[in-house]
Amino acid sequence: MTSSKQGWITLDSVINDYLEESEQSIHKYVKCFNLAFRGMEQLGIDFFYQIKSVKLPVLPNKTVSLPSDYINYSKIGVLNSKGEVIPLKYNNKLTNYAELLPDRIEKTQDNTLYNFYLPTSPIFYNYWGSGSLGNLYGIPSGAPFVGSFKVDHGNGIILLDENFFYEYIIIEYVSSPKEGEEYYVPIVFREALIAYLAWTDIRSMPSSRKGNLGDKRDRRHEFYNERRLAQARYRPFYLDEAYQLSLEMTRMCVKA
Asked: How many helices (H) and strands (E) does the chain have?
């Protein structure tokens, strides 16, 4: 039986539904698992990827190793007294030179040049709006400079500037999918995802082995039709929106 949770179903249940419907063994699960994640991109619901939040130590050379399942970050910073993440400013000027060496900071400094970016009392700005810079997340004006960073995806590290003095960073990031972990998708996309599995399961196979060109064409058409229906049906329902709609309807009735 397909498990559901408030309008969502597990990706595992969708894969098992397809294997049962197509009368295939569980040995095809790994293939279908990989196909299902590709199907999510085609369906336009890549938000099913898990967002993880981890606290990582800062190495002496002001670098941090990215997690092994890292895809992309959503937030990098430190914590305040309320448990909020105060984000660091992205600094594309940080050099990758000597980034893997223990004396990186010493090798990337040149004290013969005047530094225009060391004000007496620096302020951490990270938002531009209405023609001026401002502070996000309630950082008071004149607060100590938190620091800046740059991500080197090639070497899997985060570079921090020399002024960063914390012993850790908090990183919230999108993690790569792993077989065996539980993922949820909106229930309205179940049939579309099953149709995608049915199509891609035979798409790359020679016609002489499994399925002919007509069968592949029909399955492709079925997927795009189910995708269209699913996207038309899907719209998250929020109680505050329902409340606002109720108020508007009440006002209209009173005016009438």
From this structure: 6, 13
pTM of the model: 0.55
Contact in structure between 18 and 2 (CB atoms under 8 Å): no
pLDDT tens for residues 6-36? 688 888 999 999 999 999 999 999 999 989 9
Closest to 99 (Cα-Cα) out of 167, 151, 23, 22: 151
Helix (H) or strand (E) holding 14: helix 11-21
DSSP code of 121? Answer: S
Q: CA 145, CA 158: separation in Å to the nearest integer?
A: 18
The answer on pLDDT for 161 being more than 80 is yes
Spell 187-197 as b/e; 16+ CB within 10 A means b: bbbbbbbbbbb
Residue among 151, 169, 175, 153 nearest 59 (CA): 169
Q: What does the block give as tokens for 87?
A: 């984000």
Cα 84 to Cα 138: distance, rounded to the nearest angstrom = 10
Write down the pLDDT at residue 191. 95
204: number of Cβ within 10 Å: 7
Q: What is the pLDDT of residues 74-129, one digit of tens each?
A: 899 999 888 888 899 899 888 888 777 777 877 777 766 554 444 444 444 444 45
Kindly tell me the sign of the dihedral angle through the C-alpha atoms of 51, 64, 134, 124: positive
